[in-house]
Write a structure and sequence with these properties.
- The protein contains 6 helices and no strands.
- The protein has 202 residues and is mainly alpha-helical.
- It has a domain of 140 residues: Cytochrome Bc1 Complex, Chain D, domain 2 (Orthogonal Bundle), CATH 1.10.760.10.
- The protein is globular.
- The N and C termini lie far apart (91 Å).
- Bound molecules: heme C.
- The site of heme C has 25 residues, from helix 3 and helix 4.
- Heme C (HEC) binds next to helix 3 and helix 4.
Length: 202
């Protein structure tokens, strides 16, 4: 071939190859692209009463059993289940519509016992049973719901699942139990920077 025409024809051949392969790739990809993504209608129905499906949460929160994430989740549970409504944000307790809630700061219960009290409530007091099946399949002090008679614990502000109960119990043990007088740092940790609730520490 004449060197003067060789280069242009080589370029022409390369260009043609490029175009062909582009067409080939486009042809290959098209069917995959045009496939409909499966509809989301088959998603599991949400259980509105469970904390996991609380408004604004959408998806079930990821529950881990250890570490900082779990404490953050425990704090969320403490807020969402309105533990603070009776025990106050600091866990110090005191008078409220639920009677005098004991101080979680001064509690002598261990984590396991705290889980039991949250799940089962405390019969004959204002402490609600947060587990849906408490006394009804979930063992609570070996008693049945009927045996509780007049001592049935009140309905909880929100039902909790065991992983959530374990998270909030861990949160109490780590952040509230034995912490003495509340501090501004603890207040900010609970409510966030600049919260009005913490103004009184100024
Ligand atoms: C309606 C009010 C109310 C709510 C809401 C409530 N509690 Fe209580 N709680 C009480 C009362 C009252 C007691 C004290 C029971 C007694 O006198 O033995 C108590 C006791 C406890 C105890 C036992 C403390 C001890 O040292 O014996 C723990 C632990 C506890 N609550 C945790 C929680 C957690 C966690 C939540 C939220 C998931 C919560 N409570 C929500 C009223 C409430």
């Amino acid at each position: 071939m004449n060197p003067k025409t060789f280069l242009p024809s080589l370029i022409a051949v390369l260009l043609a190859c490029g175009m062909l392969s582009t067409l080939w790739i486009a042809g290959k990809l098209e069917p995959a692209n045009s496939k409909e993504t499966p509809s989301t209608a088959a998603e599991e129905p949400a259980a509105p009463e469970e904390l996991a499906a609380a408004p604004g949460v959408g998806k079930a929160p990821k529950v881990t059993t250890e570490g900082k994430d779990d404490l953050a989740h425990g704090k969320e549970v403490y807020k969402k289940a309105n533990c603070a409504g009776c025990h106050k944000w600091h866990g110090g307790g005191g008078g409220s519509y639920g009677g005098a809630a004991l101080s979680l700061r001064e509690t002598i219960l261990n984590q396991e016992q705290i889980v039991e009290v949250i799940a089962c409530g405390r019969p004959g007091t204002g402490m609600p049973a947060f587990h849906r099946q408490a006394y009804k399949g979930y063992d609570c002090f070996g008693m049945t719901w009927d045996e509780l008679g007049e001592d049935k614990p009140p309905k909880p502000p929100k039902r909790l699942r065991i992983p959530d109960i374990e998270s909030v119990a861990a949160y109490i043990v780590e952040k509230i139990k034995g912490k003495g007088d509340m501090t501004k740092a603890q207040c900010v940790d609970f409510w966030g920077e600049g919260a009005r609730e913490c103004g009184r520490f100024e």
